[in-house]
Protein 1
Amino acid sequence: MMSSEFFQNWFLPGIWVTIQVTFFSAALAFVIAFPIGVLRTSRVWIVRFLAGAYFEIFRSTSSLVFMFWIAFTVPPVFHISFQPMFAGVLALGITYGAYASEIVRGALAAVPAAQREAGIALNFTPAQRLRRIELPQAWPEMLPPFNNLLIELLKGTSLVSLIAVADMTFAGDLLRLVTNESAPIYTLLLGLYFVLAFLLTRGMRLLERHAKKRVGQTPEKTSLFGGMRSRSSIDAVTGTGGAK
Amino acid sequence: MSADNSTSQEIPNPAVDGSELIRFDKVVKRYGSNTVLDQLDFSVASGKHVTLIGPSGSGKTTILRLLMTLVRPDEGTIRVGGQYLTHEEKNGRLVPAGEKHVREVRKNIGMVFQQFNLFPNMKVLRNLMEAPVTVLGLSKDEAEQRARELLDLVGLGDRCDAYPTQLSGGQQQRVAIARALAMRPQVLLLDEVTSALDPELVAGVLDVLRDIAHTTDITMLCVTHEMNFARDISDQVLMFDSGHVIESGTPEKIFTEPEHERTREFLGAVL
């Protein structure tokens, strides 16, 4: 079986790297998703077009190839060097930011027109309407599809092992080479991804319950696995799962 | 304020009255190939309570939506307090107004909707405070005081901490009226405000509006199917059909001796 020394030196840090890549990519995707999603609802066509172009381009490129592109073509061309993890986070964040922008756009579009009209009748500026009325109401609707996307992202972080970032998949591969044992290692990896995804889902469910309470909706109680259900029509349009 | 027959105007009235607050000039509004308002001229004097009646699709609600700038006219101009609402003058020419100009004129206008349109993510008190604080720049304390006074006025002083969904339709609509008044508008637009309510809740809402009509000098434009209410509060009733004002006058005249055949038919059907 696997040596405990190897496990400690590679596997545990690998889990930590996976968590870090997930966290930073998600943060980047989140920061990208809001402006792009909001701008895609702009009344100015050129703004809408540019934001839409971002979405179409990065939705339609392979995040793995994009990761290779950042890791292997950017440093020589621009004479800069960076950690492989940086390339991985950048590629994943930009790609998943495009998906998430669609969630933001969809949730904003789902806020009833009557709410916008009430905002106009009270003489809010368009920015105040967005900030005070539309985004707060759209936010709880974004969380279930964000959760799906976050889990996709977690699983997508295994791609960084291919640009030599020592995440837990990378550690598993090394361990397999050293021990020549495939079944226990890959089973363990699957289990680890599941545990991380499960923890993320529970966290997102808490966030969703909190958000719903804040907008005056009664959150539904869910069973232990209830949070895995996708309950929003927005899920259907994000096309999650094609990120490889 | 009491209805004063001597000041009621014949509509359309091309004369520029000193106290004229709202004026439509040759306003055309089309939805696709359907012309909802066709070269509409009409004006409302300051402080008057005007009720728009007429069959569905005759353009009454469109007039309110135009005034609230929820839709823009295809042709013609609207003035409020002498200022163009959706146009501004640049180099002597009338051009579609920018957001800033529209907001400046629009601040005089408030609206109550058929479906209330309260903000579901805010408690009742914050529904009333949000716009005065964000838009008018009132301090929280001032806004809260104003909100509580208005909630007392509409009989809901004890429901400050409820969310809109916890209230009945009638209570929600009273909150919506208070929310519109919190902006201190000169003009209040009432768009079929009792049409979405259960019959037993209508009276409470109408009582609140009667109270406001009789104790303030706010100008009201009201689209309603409640003919008794229209008779109670209106200084002037306008009968619409197919995008035109076909008859106007005091409620006494319109409801008891309408001149136009179409008005008689309509009132016969709804009364």
Protein 2
Amino acid sequence: MRLDQRLIAGMITPGTRVLDIGSGDGALIDHLFRTRGCDARGIEIDMGEVTRSVAHGLPVVHGDADHDLAHYPDGSFDYVVLQRTLQAVERPREVLRQMLRIGRYAIVSFPNFGHWELRLKLLTSGRMPNTAVWNTPWYATPNIHPCTIRDFLALCGEEGYRVHNWMAVDEDGERAPWRRSIRLANLFGEQALFLLGKTPGGEGRRRGPEISLSDAEKKR
Amino acid sequence: MWLWLKGSPEFMDQTDIPAPVEHDRAVFPDGLTLDCGTVLAPVEIAYRTYGTLAPERNNAILVCHALTGDQYLAETHPLTGRAGWWARMVGPGKPIDTNRFFVICSNVLGGCMGSTGPRSPRPSASDTQGEAGTDDVAEPWGTDFPPITIRDMVRGQHALVRHLGIERLFAVVGGSMGGMQVLEWAATYPEMVFAAMPIATAPFHSAQNIAFNEVSRQAIFADPDWHGGRYWEVGAIPARGLAVARMMAHITYLSEEALTRKFGRRVRRESTPPATPCTVAEPQSLSLFGEIFEVESYLRHQGSSFVHRFDANSYLTITRAMDWMDLGAEHDGDYAGPFAGTATRFCVISFSSDWLFPTSQSRVLVRALNRAAANVSFVEIGSDKGHDAFLLDEPDFDRTVRGFLSGAAEHAGLGHHAAEA
């Protein structure tokens, strides 16, 4: 299991219901079932991965974030997880809405397009940046909706989502030290990881674009 | 080269009624109340079991057979002498492992392999009125057999499972019409089904599939040996009609790729003489409408071998039961309705080249199960073998079946059987 998946698992309360969108080889849902007693299920777009997961006894359906979330009932999960996939879906905003309709919390990770290396490469070469994280040419990339950490926070503000927890993560999945400053995280974080919830008082309520940590998180 | 070539010259020959075979069965004198309102009594359910029931009675898997299958799942068939229809899937060490699980397979209600069906003797009026019996031999039900549904078949299986002292099935597994029974089990007796594996199936029978069934039925009706369904009175069977029905249906079980790969446009060698002298009413192979292409020969064999083991009235009864299948009918067309609140773990499997029960219909089922917040796995197996792929060698399919069952067994708290340790 990747290190950032351990960070995700650490955000999830044991014994809860979890839907992992883009479950890949099923490592996270397997881990959540075995070590945290979760009812963890997956959706995966790659049929080979689905077959491998089901053949390992994991509950995974073939499907994708854009087309299959609408069929799940409101509040049917505690957590809905989307790992490193938000930038590749057709309608990221709708996918986030669906995640927070289906689940009480959404856990979202994505590669940060605000990383200094990307900024520098675009500035100096004038070409689309090609790095270890963003490693496909522009005409072949599945990443049709890249965003930065600050872009994502702005969207959360527009949609009225509450950020319960966030962290910058490096490519190997280690938690990066940029905890106190979003601007530094946006410059030095290769990946970002967010735990979102709905704002108390209903959906669609517009809030400021910045983070509102829960009291529990502030105490940590 | 192919076994079926041998049988083909007998095609459409009038066939003797097969010698009766004694099948293991459970008898339910009180019978069953069917969906149509008729009380069918007595009811007999013929079945076979494989493996050992655990002392906790928690390791039973019910396998449901398809339209023309039967209870001889994993052993030599007593009539045809061929291997059981799912012998490659069920057995010691197989994906449905009889070292670990107790596997039950019963002939469906309406069938012709020992369970009560159109060929069963019809209780006479004097029996039901308690009057003195006559010397008449009991007549078969024939076309007067009451219409049955997939749920009626499941009611019969339910009676059998309880008769075997099993309170809860670990899993119910089946393909095609067997998959329809799996879904009816999960909808009708949810508390008795821990895991359900509907394969190459759908929660409803499509208009196209009803249409195919109708052509099959009309082929039987058009046979001069049909005799209004009372063919036994003249010692005949509507072999030609039944064979044509089977041939047509068999095409729907395959795919264009599979037919091309197996037969292409290959022409039979003219040197192949009729293997046995017989009275064949059909033109011979050298004539314009004889068996010219290999695919024709294959289909004719499929047709002629079928009539030896299947009853025409059963075929009519069972195809009609499939046509009635629509799990949404009692829920305003919502296929999530029958599964509301279900705790069953589902594994839905489709095959990419299956055009009889295409993946799109499995997806309708999966989305309905998602709406019901059910625990569901869903895999489309890549295969060019068409609908019949679930009966054939597909390693990914085997792995999926084995993996889903062992994962479900872990969740059910089933230990490995002592024999395996």
